[in-house]
C-alpha cells in the first residue's frame, strides 16, 4: 500500500537538462518528508509533478490515493501547495486574499472571515491586514502566501522552501503552525535548504542531487552516516597545521578536512565533549596555539558535501590528505 505521497521513477527533461532522473518517494500518511538538496537539484520540479502542474516524461505518482497523471483534477482537490515564489494577488489586501481563498474553497463568508483573521494573527500580519499586498515586504508576502495555503487543511500539503526569506521569529511561528497541522493528520512534503528545519519538522529526509534521491533516512541516521559530531579547530600558525592534523586524526573517526587558508581543521568524532577536552590537551601539549576550537553537529553542508563527495573520492582514488581540498572544490562547483 503506497503512502499518501508516492512516486516511482519520475523522469523530466528540459532540453539537455535531466531535471528529474528517476525520483522515487514514499511518504506514509500523517508524516513529514523533508526534501533537501542544492540549487537545481530538482526539488521544485518534483513538487510541480506531484501537484499536477507539470507532466513527467515517465514514471508514476500517486497522491492521496489518486493517480496524478490519470486524475489531476481530483488530486488538486485533495492537496494544498505553497510554491517557492509567493502567489498572492498584489491588488487585494492581505485579508481579502485570505478570504478569497476561503470562498474559493466554498467556505461560508463567516467562516472565511474567521479563518482569515486567525491566520493573519498567527503570521504576524494583523497590522498590515488591510494594506494591499503590493506594499508588503518579501517576508510578508511569503507569510501571506503560506497563510493562503493553510486556509483549508487538505490531507496532503506541499511546501516549497516555506521559510526561505523569513526572519527567525516568523520562521518559528511557521514551524509551530506546521507542527499543529501534522498533529492533525496532514501529510506534508517540504523542501528546504536548512537541515535545522528538516531536523525539527521532518520524520524522514530525502537528499536529492542531479534529479535523483541520493540518500534517505531520519535526520539522525543521515548525521550518523556522515559521522555525528565534529571537532573544529582553527590554529594560530599555519606551520602547526600538520601537527594538529595528526592529533585530530588520532582522535577522530574519519578523514580530517583541512582548509589551509583559514587554518581550519575539522574531523568527525564520536563521544564529543570528552574528546574535545582531550584534543585541547594534546594540542596544548604539543605546542599548537589555538585561535578557536569547538564541537558542532553536522550541518546540511556536511551531510551534503559528504554524500556527494563520496563519488568524487572514489573517482580521485581516496587520498586522505586531499580530502579537505576536494570537499571544498565539490562545494564550489555547486554554487551557481
Ligand atoms: N521550465 C524549465 N525549463 C528549463 N529548465 C528547467 C525548468 N524548470 C527547471 N529546470 C531545470 O531543471 C533543474 C532542476 O530545477 P528545480 O527548479 O527543480 O531545482 P530546485 O532543486 O528546486 O532548485 P532551487 O533550490 O534553486 O529552487 C535545473 O537545472 C533547472 O534549471
Ligand atoms: Mg526550487
UniProtKB/TrEMBL annotation:
It is found in: Cell membrane. Residues 312-336 are annotated as: Disordered. SUPFAM superfamilies: P-loop containing nucleoside triphosphate hydrolases. Pfam families: ABC_tran (PF00005), DrrA1-3_C (PF13732). Keywords: Antibiotic resistance, ATP-binding, Cell membrane, Membrane, Nucleotide-binding, Translocase, Transport. Residues 323-336 have a biased composition (Basic and acidic residues). It is a peripheral membrane protein. It comes from the Bacteria. Residues 5-235 form the ABC transporter domain. One of its GO terms (molecular function) is ATP binding. PANTHER family: ABC TRANSPORTER ATP-BINDING PROTEIN (PTHR42711), DOXORUBICIN RESISTANCE ATP-BINDING PROTEIN DRRA (PTHR42711:SF19). Belongs to the ABC transporter superfamily. Drug exporter-1 (DrugE1) (TC 3.A.1.105) family. This is Daunorubicin resistance protein DrrA family ABC transporter ATP-binding protein. It comes from Streptomyces macrosporus.
